[in-house]
Amino acid sequence: MIQGIIFDMDGVLIDSSRIHEKAYELVFQDFNRDFSYDKYAGKRTYDVFSEVLSDLDLEHSEIVKLSHRKTQAALQILETDGTLLPGVYECLKKLHTRFSLALGTSASRPTQELVFKKFELNRFFPIAINANDVRLAKPDPEIFLSCAQRMKLEPQNILVVEDSLAGAQAASAGGFFFVGIHQKTNDFRNLSGYLNDFNHFETLTDWILHQWATDQH
């Protein structure tokens, strides 16, 4: 029985793909590199720079500086252009009184905190785990397992809502059930724990309530 739900943030709750893509491009233009954000969506910023620039054998401190530049650029864009995806607020209002909710994101703490402040999401998420809280990023399940530990629930009693392949792989590896939302290029069906795919929060919300809400307090 599902008692808790973990939401990813970027691409799930907020329309952030174009924000992160633009921020990465601003940094990568110094290296004359082609960059496709879709390939790296859901991964931690540090890991993206490590992978894309692996041939340069950069020092840890250099990658940290690049990650900081990207984060600051994304924060500036997010502050003015960031928006919640349609149906998110209504979904959270309906679910937070029936399920234990948590956020599990590969975004940095400054980004997560800005999103929570800008859209007043603290009321829905008493638990939030971001990239600064864990050692290993998605597709490792550490983020979701950390959420589960703080929720005091077993993975099999938690539903994860994800849009990226890295996130879906993390949920699957951790023993969670999961659904896809807003994802267009990835096929999650071959991963263990997969339950369904949705294009809109309204249908996702109705499906969750139909499946489990009658069993909740």
Mean pLDDT: 92
Tell me the β content. 5-15%
Computed Rg: 17 Å
Give the termini distance in whole angstroms. 13 Å
Describe this structure in words.
This protein is of the alpha/beta class and 217 residues long. It folds into 2 domains: 145 residues, HAD superfamily/HAD-like (Rossmann fold), CATH 3.40.50; 65 residues. Helix content is 45%, strand content 12%. It has 9 helices and 6 strands; from the N terminus they run βαααααβαβαβαββα. Helix 8 links the parallel strand 4 and strand 5.
What tags apply to this protein structure?
217 residues, single chain, 6-stranded parallel sheet, 6 strands, alpha/beta, Rossmann fold, 9 helices
Question: Secondary structure elements and their pairing?
Answer:
Elements: E1 4-7, H1 17-28, H2 37-40, H3 45-52, H4 60-81, H5 88-95, E2 100-104, H6 109-119, E3 127-129, H7 142-151, E4 158-162, H8 165-174, E5 177-181, E6 194-198, H9 201-212
Parallel strand pairs: 1-2, 1-4, 2-3, 4-5, 5-6
